[in-house]
Records
---
Amino acid sequence: MLFNSFEFLIFFPIVFIAYWLLNNRLKQQNVLLLISSYVFYAWWDWRFLSLIIISSFIDFKAGSQIFKSETPQSKKMWLMVSLVANLGMLSVFKYYNFFAESFSDLMQVFGWQPNDLTLNIILPVGISFYTFQTLSYTIDIYRKEFEPTKDIISFFTYIAFFPQLVAGPIERASNLLPQIEKPRVFKKPWFNEGLIQILVGLFRKIVIADTIGAYVDLVYGDIELYNSTTILLATFLYAFQIYYDFSGYSDIAIGTAKLLGFKFHQNFNIPYFSKSLTEFWRKWHMSLSYWLRDYLYISLGGNRKGIVITYRNLLLTMLLGGLWHGSSWNFIIWGAIHGIVLSIEKFLKSKGYLDKVKSIGFLGYPITFCVVLVSWVFFRAQDLHSASLAISKIFQFNLGAPYIGDINVMASSIFVLAIGIIFDLYLFNKKINLEEFGSKFTGVKLAVIAAVIITLINLFYSSSNNFIYFQF
């Protein structure tokens, strides 16, 4: 079920009304949330509910056993049960075919033609997100940073909570689980904030991302047909398509949760207004960025074992972060670009070079954006050949008039993108968090804003456009 679908427009009001009619009955509310979350997920494919349920059972038990274990060996064994079970399922469904194909390609280099090793398997929606979410629970218990819950319904609800089940944000148990276990009360300011954030998210997705995505899909559908200018324009537009698509999803998820009395952490904070790639990753997909930092980078040693090991850890973290996004060499290269540039920034900072250029620090904005833009080529291209061709064409500087196509479509793309950027600039300059934006409006202003946004959404709506991050 998609947030931008007619089905969700029916589903959520029913859940919302039933949920608040059960006010002051916590267990019944949580049971309703759990059943609703399973219905939400099963709308895509009910068979894969078994994976979520199995993962939930394993980690509920593993978390309890880690906490009760009296020896380090026992704690480590139960942690390994959680890691192997969850990463094992993720590896089979998401990465088996990629590694099988890569192995076959390598063997062909040496003249051996192996049989087809791939399997006919489907990637379950959201498996990357809920796997990371449930692993954070057992790892935090192992590190003695969190105590396990005794309420299995609350835990299962934490894993499957529908607003963030299929594409995040990746919520930590330390934030979300205590909210599930304690009574919630309806708060009108939260309702206003959540409603505005949902509408902004739908606007970002339907009006901005889907509109400019039509041009991006056309150009990246056949790179060979277009010149440097056209590919650059498509890549520039893709940078905003993926931002408004995914930040839009996060807005809807955060706003939906707030309407139900839950507060998620912020997931995007206007990332393209960043002076460095390090700052970019503090603002882009923040729940993933902090997860990679806390559970991968720090586990590898972080910056505690010397500068060379720090560079290695940065590179490995971003390589694995790239692989998390997709089973393709494109994503690995995307991660490598970010890892290398992050390491360069850390080197320059350690030598004090960055302090010497503070007077021209504004140059960090375009430099960072250009680095991100180049990396997006690998993220968007259909395969490594298409990405290589796009990069080679861009740097041939075969400049000319860009392909425009339907002038009305292009004009609409520029218009809606301008609205999005102006709104982001307003938030940036005023230092306003979108999560609190709705609290600034009276009921009348809220109704007017909602009416305008809903009108625009209806004008641009297309039910055929999935969220980009569903594929990850």
---
Amino acid sequence: MPTLKDIADLVGVSISTASRVVRNDTSRHINPETKAKVWEAVRQLNYTPNESARHLVNKQKVEKKQTKQIGCIIQTARLNDDHPYYSPIITAFTKKILESGYSLGFMHTSDELKDEALLHRCLHDIQVDGIIIVGEVGPEIVDYLLKVDELALIGICTNGTEITMVDYDRIHAAKSAVDHLISQGHQSIGFVGGPGHTSELNSEERFQGFKFAMYDAGIPLNKEWVIDTRWEIDRSYESIMERLKRADLERPTAIFSASDQLAIPAMRAVIENQLRIPEDIAFISMDNIDFAQYTTPPLSSVHVPKVEIGTTAASTLLDMLNGEQPQLSKVLLPHRLIVRQSSVFTRN
């Protein structure tokens, strides 16, 4: 088995420096470049940080035994028990694995796992059989996980093509929402959303679906009303308020939002400008979180089967662990358009 001395020799540092990096000892400053080199050596040599872990790895090389534990890594700032989109997914996933005799070994955000010592401990000390990745957690974490032997991975709305995925068709779902607005006669439609995995708006599938619908209908995009909020609720409200107050800017007759959480503050901005929904500006959105039906007026939205996504992800991961599922596949669950008063103007 590799030792700290092997790591130190490979990097060209002292054993004590290598040890401090692996133990996340911050008592002395270590150059970030040196730390990165040490962690690269850890991965390259498949080093495990303690005797019991090394002993376990030796046993696993003879016969891999399941620990009946699953890890969860979730997108930055999304680890929240009452998050209206992610909470039902994680709850359903956890319920299914518990019913199957497994437990949740850890749950961390991608921000927390930028601490490579913590990431290493999660994988080598806790010894999970598989991991569910929820959201865009960053390519460095995904690449790290892919290098771990016999670790089953499944993703929901995450980056990487080398991971089994359970999701829904965001492009088609977004297009169906915009098609609904077009069917209502709208020819000037704004967009509110955020970037995709490349941190650019064009990489986001819901924005792609919006553009496809507009192009198919021969409707030009108004760049002034394509709003990248960086997925921040406050930016949605502030961006709409700023544009509506501009005398030189013609407002759209409808807005498509990539999520209900961005649509709700945008609707508030419209109402605070003494405009009516949907008579002056219609709204349709994505996700169909519980709050959507209680806005004023109720928000039209594409229903995403969040509970079914979580349950299917758990079932697929369990099948992978039992050798009953291909290691690489993509499962897309059906979405459903829910039309409410925010997008349909009924004349009396």
